[in-house]
Amino acid sequence: MKRAHKYDVIVVGAGGAGLMAARYASQNPNVSVAVITKLYPTRSHTGAAQGGVGAALGNVSEDHPEWHAFDTVKGGDYLTDQDVAEVFAREVVEAVYELEHMGLPFSRTPDGRIAQRKFGGHTREFGKSAVERACYAADRTGHMILQTLYQQSIKNKVTFFNEFHVLDLVMVDGACRGVVAYELATGELHTFHSKAVILATGGSGRMFGVTSNAHALTGDLMSIVWRHGLPIEDPEFFQFHPTGLYRIGVLLTEGARGEGGILRNANGERFMERYAPTIKDLAPRDMVSRAMYLEIREGRGAGPDKDYILLDLTHIDGDIIEERLPDITEFARIYLGVDPIKEPVPVQPTAHYAMGGVPTTLETNVISDGQNTIVPGLYAAGEVACVSLHGANRLGTNSLGDLIVFGRRAGMEAARYAQEVQFDYLPPDNQEPTREMLERTRGGSGKERVSHIRKDLQATMMDNASVFRTEETLTTQLRVLEELKERYKDVLVEDQGQQYNTELMEAVELGFLIDNAEMLVNAALNRTESRGAHSREDYKERDDENWLKHTMIYREGNGVRIDYKPVTLGKYEPKPRVY
Amino acid sequence: MQVTVKIKRFNPEVDKRPHWEEYKLEARPTDRVLDVLHEIKWEQDGTLAFRRSCAHGICGSDAMMINGVNRLACKLLVKDLGDHIVIEPIRGLPVLKDMIVDMDPFFESYEEVLPYFINDDPPPAQERLQSPEDRALFDATTKCILCAACTTSCPIFWTNGRYIGPAAIVNAHRFIFDSRDQGAGQRLEVMNRMNGVWRCRTAYNCTEACPRDIPITQAIEQVKREIARTAV
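ok -> structure tokens follow
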């Protein structure tokens, strides 16, 4: 295979955002498009999303995009950019219909419409009560979105480079002109020359020990962008989903509570009544995860070690559980040996979603500072990006909505840009930094196993920088990260072969993870307030006067530099967040 | 508990043919086989190669033959296997390295069945309607994750690699029985070809191998009956 490629638009990542972007970019007949993924497209983690995609269709009860936009802003603890939320709530309605027109097999209401159910933080009339907004296909909505978009890619003959691991962006004079990728099958480096690159590579949950995220989610492109001196926005906001399977973190959809499931402590008490009297178990995820931690801390955790909470579905009709929640029922049965129809399921919060990421405009252009200066030729959408729709805390179902709305925008915008500009000069030594990085990684002294460093990273991130944080834990974690960076220099790669060297890639991914942890911890230490998923026990209140602004964190030398970007406000005035 | 794991290894850069290697390690009964493989890769032998991603049976990366049957390594626990575990790559696809096989022939068969929604009528402003009953007709086959556990467990596929295989038929079924789709005729024609659905001899291996519990043999029979019914 030749190792120099030329496409007008390169999409990195083949999950929901990437496939949606590829579809829309390739609808422009004057533009050539290729998708690069380190997996096979159908292995992408969009497929693990379960409960639904929120859109105000009003199929079950009255609903409006304005209500959805408000819930998104309030759910994001007012750090959400309100122009983004409004565009999103409007466009996600047409995007969901569009998925249906592509054949997505949604579950159906009795009159044949797309079925909808309740989800955390989604309400009618600006917070009065929970509303059925999540459009679902049983509890495999993400799977059906991924499959449907992949099917469309086949129909539209999209070009894929599968198992190509993007390890660098080619940046020249502040513009992106392509990517460098490592071909897993051969160990060779390839350069993809392009006019526009769309980043759609998902999140970084593997920096935590208990996570719902796939092994592949190592924050690669967030790190690569950062290493090029570009900022990352709001990395301190990392969502912990309340209901991960105890110890292993596998996701159990919030849809389980949408269907009536209840969280109980060791005493059998429905404790969410105390924390969110109106919508109880359907409060936003940050609040529920904190409540669970507090219950455990105060000695009301269940189990022999009093360290988990119970998700109780036993009062729900077994047939409804089997029909609407078949996958999570199976997960509980297989991994914990617990049948949710008969007994409550042990759960704990699990690292789930990066609200922050590569900052973009509403048009998905990546920006290089707080003044919205555009990086020519670089776009981002989905979890890797921060547009900022989710603010300080994402509402359930809004990740899938984000993928389809902003994936679509990215595809259209990148194609339009590519059509307007010419291919620009590509320096011949564009692979050198990647080659050096691989040689360094492969040729280390070999004293430290990848898995040992990674395990220590994941354990300490859970201890010091997860649901609750203090200056002390975060400072401790910064010290830990310095040690881990030193140890990483001595990383061991036993496999010196070229073909399918998955060990080498794990070592490289560990480097990306450490970067992601570094941004998160520095930004979390800097933000002396509590907002959304960022909860400082030494600064318990939200502080709009000083902190109603986005973090923009840069790599500088061996340290970091922190700047800010204003939040786009709108008609929803910041208010105390009660549910 | 102590487990002994025998793994069929093949490194194309060193080996002329595959060979077995044995590993001993401590495992918990509730560990996934994938955890065991990771323990070996992470603590004993970094060169061991296998695909994996989600680790809970949704992405379809880690189909392999475990104690003689095709399973996802992330969806099978040590306690269900005992203290002797034998792992080899899925059969019938070229082995590239250890558990990693060439998936291209598998995806080529999949693409043959036109695995995408076909309906050339202009769409309505909102959704196309479909009753819950019509939706239920193809519910099971929408669960497919393209892991290839079924196709590579099929004895017909082992002897005739050109047989389109159960996974492709499952995905044809998913559209043929979707009331909104208009491409059933084209797909049934593909199914009716020499290496199509009639090669199936109902060995049931596919149904037993499917990690998503899709009643594959039943779906194949429904496709056969639909060909007969529409007499293409």
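Residues 2 and 26 of chain B are 5 Å apart (CA to CA).
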